[in-house]
Amino acid sequence: MIKKVITMVILAASFTSCVAVKEYEKVSINDPDMALADKKSDRNTTTFHSYREAAVGANGGKTGGGCGCN
Amino acid sequence: MNFFKKLVLPVFVLGFTIGYAQDSTEVYKKRVLENTEVDFLSSYYSQDGANAAVSGGFGSEELTDATGTVVVSIPLNDDDILTIDAGISAYTSASSSNIDPFDGNKLADPFIASSGASSSDLWGNVTGVYSHSSDSRDDIWSAKASISSEYDYFSVGAGGSYTKLFNEKNTEVSVNLNVYLDTWKTIYPIELRAFANASSGYDAFIFNRNAIVGDQSYNPDFKELGSKGRNSYSLGFGFSQILSKKMQGSLALDFVQQKGLLSTPFQRVYFSDVPDSFYENFQLADDIERLPDSRFKVAVGGRLNYYINEIFVLRSYYRYYTDDWGIQSHTASLEIPIKIGQKFTLYPSYRYYMQTAADYFAPYESHLSTEEFYTSDYDISEYTANQYGFGVTYTDLLSNFKLWNLGLKTIDLKYNKYDRDSGLSASIVTGGFKFVIE
User: Fold this and answer.
1) Inter-residue contact B307 to B248 (CB < 8 Å)
2) Whether the model pTM is above 0.95
């Protein structure tokens, strides 16, 4: 597990070395479908997953608590 | 007085001067949110299967749920947003109806829904989020509070987050902390209530013993749960990075610690080393599920989105999850938005999910009464699930459609079909209507 986390951190750090994209170059990045999150309307689907599946977290949804779910 | 003149007054004057100078050199900043936004979200969920946890892993899992939510985001000023999120969810469940399957209307059977009080319930939630962005928009703080309630469950939650953007807003890091303090109203299977700690046991059993099929000396050693509270603490870290003009990705790492009542009080367990007793067609419980009062979860996930061209976008997601109950899981999903003109986008998607079983899981009639922890809840069994989805979004760029003073921005509709290899099948239809107040 620790190895996986370290790998992720190294991977994340390597991302920052990329050339910065200027604001005026972010037309594609700012497309609503490029958002790094689920759409609001998908929220109830994520909630049903948190009831029916053991895994939660790392997706912006519930992580346990606030419902009778896992 | 001299002290005031020599020190405090100059400081006051200097402070006033600086303040005036700042006021007189106003820097233009875009409002974080231009207009109040209102989202109406709804969904209809249905499922069926044959492994109901309420009847010890054997019985109907038929369930329907209808949810409606309103999310209102209000710009308080240039920098601050208040979001109020209120929702209600109504469900009917064959499984939970069989907490008391002996309603007298139909023969009690784990595959037939009872008409008892637990056959339906309402879940309500209100969440308030306040967020503040710095003048540079490089720092964002938020705080939230929530309450939610259903008949046997009440929850109070609070949390906060901090987000920092840098590298010309190409890089974003965030940290969030959430706490939920929940309380169960412990509802036990009907046949076990006579054997609870304060009850008179064998003599208080409400059924006609002569009608019991199998072991007529039914006398379970049932002990009520000690704790009724469940506290959940989560700490999350996020990182996102623009990788090129057409690609960006993010990583998330969540730690969750839960303490307290983590068993569901009305989920039955049948032991293989205890004689079976049936009343009508329903097997009487040997016990309820017993699970540890602590659980530590770790989830690490990543997203990678690629803008292929003006028509296609590739959205991918992967998550690895593990906890100290012995469960490991992989989740992967792929969605390819397809733009059809300026107004419509199609959303075909696929999601793969697998998990290993919790150490405490065993199927119907497989546990031994000598075990310390046990459950036959198939939600924490080993299985693989596939989900296929298709959605469509309509975008009204100029908000031409008006509803009173609400201008329509988008309509989202989506259908997902979810199938487990253990037999459970579910589908969900979701709808979202986004308006702005102009």
Assistant:
1) no
2) no
